[in-house]
Design brief:
about 200 residues; alpha+beta; six-stranded mixed sheet; two-stranded antiparallel ribbon; 7 helices; about 25% helix; globular; disordered N terminus; DUF2796 domain-containing protein
Length: about 200
Amino acid sequence: MRRLLLALPFALLPLAIAQAADEHDHDHDHEHGSLGAHEHGVGRLNAVLDGQTLELELESPAMNLVGFEHQASTDADKAKVAAARKQLEQPLALFSLPQAAGCVINAQKLNSPLFGDKPAADHDDHDHATDGKGVAAHDHDHDHSEIHAHYQFTCATPGALKNLDLANIFKTFPATQKIQVQLISPNGQQGVEATGAAATLKF
């Protein structure tokens, strides 16, 4: 699955990842190496540099960013969600893009059940199903809340984008232990794993 994702144009990556996530929901009992697997402490990032356009798509279990995955009901939980959202709304700081590249944000979209977004439509028909233990299937879905952030930048000098520094993500969200990165640039395609100790990736 990972090799297939690398070969896909960026426009299809979210679709492929959603499919992988769907496979994870239905095949929860066996481990597989798809990027859609939900693992606490592990985030996923797709990064594509095409001409002057840089697209970044970050997906993470909510546990990594806010410390829980249930709907925020207390004031403290709501404050944590609001704080995480505010940090995610500042991608130039989060991804430490070099000033020399002259990148400006064109579009950004944040999506998560914790932000009040509805879960994917394919889960709606499971709302009244049970898992065989009398637990509603949608309760299981809520235990696996994810936060998705998609950013599109225009960079005046894309040649200055030699590196992608993820250190601020690890500092801002310390529960994130590693990020699995799929990176596509004029230099080719690569799959790498970033950690707090090795947070700088080469384009």
